[in-house]
């Protein structure tokens, strides 16, 4: 498993840019900030990470089934009881699988690939499901928050 570091810098009031060490960047802002669009909210990035990880891993776990037209839709649903957290995340795999593909068992092969993706190989999905320790380190090097 690789270790990752992302730098996030403030570019304006409630506007941020996240960068990786390969030069990619993504703009982060509040959804209701018209001056910051196009951008993602932090929650949208989490959902995008689930879809992206699911897709990248499914390319390996379900490679026996042709899935060039696969579309993954990730949605969240919260209730007032969720208290500042996402309540439920649904990852929907949309793909037309011909009934006669792979000797008639393509749907089962694809379903197994999706199950393995989330049970074993998608780091993002497994982290969301099981949680991770979060530590916030202050400018003086002390820990301002830790949980998990």
From TrEMBL:
It comes from the Bacteria. SUPFAM superfamilies: OsmC-like. Pfam families: OsmC. InterPro entries: KH_dom-like_a/b (IPR015946), OsmC/Ohr_fam (IPR003718), OsmC/Ohrsf (IPR036102). PANTHER family: PROTEIN YHFA. This is OsmC family peroxiredoxin. It comes from Streptomyces triticagri.
């Amino acid at each position: 498993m690789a270790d990752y570091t992302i730098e996030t810098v403030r570019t304006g009031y409630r506007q941020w840019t996240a960068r990786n060490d390969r030069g990619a960047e993504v703009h982060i802002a509040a959804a209701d900030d018209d001056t910051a669009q196009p951008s993602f909210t932090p929650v949208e990035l989490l959902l995008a990470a689930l879809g992206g990880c699911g897709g990248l891993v499914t390319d390996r776990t379900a490679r026996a089934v042709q899935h060039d037209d696969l579309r993954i839709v990730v949605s969240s649903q919260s209730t007032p009881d969720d208290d500042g957290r996402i309540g439920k995340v649904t990852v929907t795999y949309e793909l037309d699988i011909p009934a006669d593909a792979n000797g008639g068992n393509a749907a089962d092969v694809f379903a197994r690939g999706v199950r393995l993706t989330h049970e074993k190989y998608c780091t993002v999905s497994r982290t969301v499901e099981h949680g991770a320790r979060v530590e916030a380190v202050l400018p003086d090097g002390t820990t301002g928050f830790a949980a998990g």
